[in-house]
Write a structure and sequence with these properties.
Blueprint (H helix, E strand, L loop, with lengths): L2 H33 L15 E6 L31 E12 L3 E11 L8 E8 L6 H6 L6 E2 L4 E10 L10 E10 L1
């Protein structure tokens, strides 16, 4: 065999040895890296809360009254259709939150509409009471309307309307109260 062939064979064996050593080293490194790597995962499912805000004129049967047009008809203890200056009438109303989310509770000012009533004709007030029902005694014992409401909570209200000295004979109109529950 000639020296050039022997040198080529030696060179080829060395290349194979280096490649084989690199392969072993690469596999060893991969195995070593695999042994020093680890992963950890965590997950959770998310679901939006919900609530339904309803009102009741009797303290037991709650329903949605989601618009001014669909407002619940209040029952005043004294008929409010024959008021004179200085007269005061009271009506109970309850609001309830069902579902899973608490809410901020706000009351807007009573709104007079559809008629000749003007803001100066009547004065409005409302308090929260411990039980459903409303008269001068319940109103006097009432507390401020809460600013938040939790799921399952009922807030009993006592609404007070007083005819002012500015009430004009024959003025008439509809007054609408509005409460809003905004999810916290």
């Amino acid at each position: 065999m000639d020296t050039s062939s022997a040198a080529k064979g030696l060179r080829r064996r060395r290349i194979y040895a280096v490649l084989a050593g690199g392969l072993v080293l690469g596999v060893g490194t991969a195995v070593t890296l695999a042994a020093w790597n680890d992963s950890e995962f965590a997950k959770s499912t998310f679901t939006a809360g919900s609530f339904v805000f309803q009102g009741s004129t009797d303290g037991t049967a709650f329903a949605d009254h989601a618009s001014e047009a669909g407002a619940a008809d209040l029952t005043f203890l004294v008929n409010p259709t024959n008021l004179s200056p200085g007269d005061t009438v009271y009506a109970p109303y309850a609001v309830k939150l069902t579902g899973s989310s608490p809410a901020d509770l706000t009351q807007t000012v009573a709104i007079a509409s559809g008629g000749t009533l003007v803001a100066a004709d009547l004065a409005f007030d409302a308090v929260a009471t411990t039980a459903f029902g409303c008269d001068a005694t319940a109103f006097g014992a009432g507390t401020a309307i809460p600013t938040s409401i939790t799921a399952g909570q009922t807030v009993n209200l006592c609404l007070k309307v007083s005819a002012t000295e500015d009430l004009v004979q024959g003025h008439t109109g509809t007054v609408t109260w509005k409460w809003e529950a905004v999810s916290q």
